[in-house]
Write a structure and sequence with these properties.
Elements: H1 3-37, H2 40-49, E1 55-62, E2 65-72, E3 79-83, H3 94-102, E4 106-110, H4 129-142, E5 148-153, H5 155-166, E6 171-177, H6 182-191, H7 193-198, H8 200-204, H9 210-217, H10 219-228, H11 239-249, H12 254-267, E7 281-286, E8 307-312, H13 319-322, H14 324-335
Parallel strand pairs: 3-4, 3-5, 5-6, 6-7, 7-8
Antiparallel strand pairs: 1-2, 2-4
Helix pairs in contact: 3-14, 4-5, 10-11
Length: 336
């Protein structure tokens, strides 16, 4: 056999072995996700029971979609809507629900579209900010309320900002937790190399199928990477909490839907407009956020008329989990 034929044979063997190992690796990830996804009812039931207050898990129809929502508190209390971010779900607010209920508020905590048990429409266009904001408006209306106090963290904060711009009449008070105002984010991405570096993952999420493949191979490792390892106070997430996140991310279609939030923002970038917000607004900002720099909080008074900023030192991105007592004190003081 010639040396050329030998090299071709060796290359074929190596390529075949690599393809086989890759297929086994992908199949193992699929099996892991299926096993985790099957636990969703048990996890949801346990999570609701552990809130320490009477709460119910319900599906609410908004804009033709079913949003899974956890509801607690007196029916006649002022409505507070809590909006989670990536890669979490309603349970990220576990430390805020009971204090709000004890203070007399009616609390609604949805899995936003694409997440956990909520509907996951196919296509990037279904995750535009205006559509997500409209979901929240319809959720408020489903409670037969004209207004609600709206709290949002991370990409859920992005939806809350958009809601206050698109439908200011439905937002009584606005509380944003480590989520940049659109205009400030544009400024920092354009001018600040440090923020450009922090936001690398948003660019990576624009790739088709590869982020889903990598993040979905081990949902538990993904939850640990983003939440526990991304926190300053790593004790904020127990192994139980991470398991619940992994179960949530393993739901069919969830990872693609969650990533489509970021893809939709970048595709609609030029059409997104920052408009004046006159709603009383509290911005809670952890200073050690791994993904969002403190400079994103500067100069906001030109877009937000009535703004109060509260900084939390020695705290990372997952603020409501890392510093729940301080967050709760600020929330209750601002909305009372």
């Amino acid at each position: 056999m010639s040396q050329r034929r030998q090299r071709q044979l060796l290359l074929g063997i190596v390529a075949g072995a690599a393809a086989s190992l890759g297929a086994i690796w992908v199949r193992r990830g699929q099996t892991t996700r299926a096993s985790l996804a099957a636990r969703i009812e048990e996890v949801t039931r346990q999570n609701v029971q552990q809130l320490g207050v009477a709460a119910e898990s319900r599906f609410i129809n908004v804009n033709g979609l079913q949003l899974h929502t956890v509801i607690a508190g007196p029916r006649d209390g002022k409505l507070v809507v809590l909006l989670h971010g990536f890669p979490e779900n309603w349970y990220t607010w576990r430390n805020q629900i009971k204090p709000l209920v004890d203070a007399g508020y009616r609390v609604a905590v949805p899995d936003q579209r694409g997440y956990n048990l909520s509907a996951k429409p196919v296509g990037v266009h279904n995750y535009r900010l205006d559509a997500l904001a409209s979901d929240v408006r319809e959720l408020i209306r489903s409670f037969e309320r004209e207004q609600a106090i709206v709290v949002g963290h991370d990409s859920g904060g992005g939806v809350a900002w958009q809601l206050a711009m698109d439908y200011p009449e439905v937002v009584e008070k606005l509380i944003i937790i480590n989520a940049p105002h659109l205009a400030a984010f544009r400024r920092e991405i354009r001018e600040n190399p440090a923020q450009q570096q922090k936001s690398w993952y948003m660019a990576a999420f624009q790739l088709p199928w590869l982020p889903e493949l990598l993040l979905g191979q081990s949902p538990l490792a993904t939850a640990d990477l983003f939440c526990r390892k991304g926190a300053v106070n790593q004790e904020a997430y127990s192994s139980y909490d991470l398991h619940g996140l992994a179960v949530s991310m393993s739901q069919p279609g969830a990872l693609t839907a969650m990533l489509n939030w970021y893809r939709a923002v970048f595709r609609d970038w030029s059409s997104l407009q920052a408009r004046q917000i006159d709603t009383p607004t509290l911005l809670i900002w952890a200073e050690q956020d791994i993904a969002l720099g403190k400079s994103l909080t500067y100069g906001l008074d030109q877009w937000v008329t009535h703004l109060k900023i509260h900084y939390i030192s020695d705290c990372g991105h997952w603020v409501q989990n890392e510093a729940p007592d301080e967050v709760n004190a600020q929330l209750l003081e601002f909305i009372k």
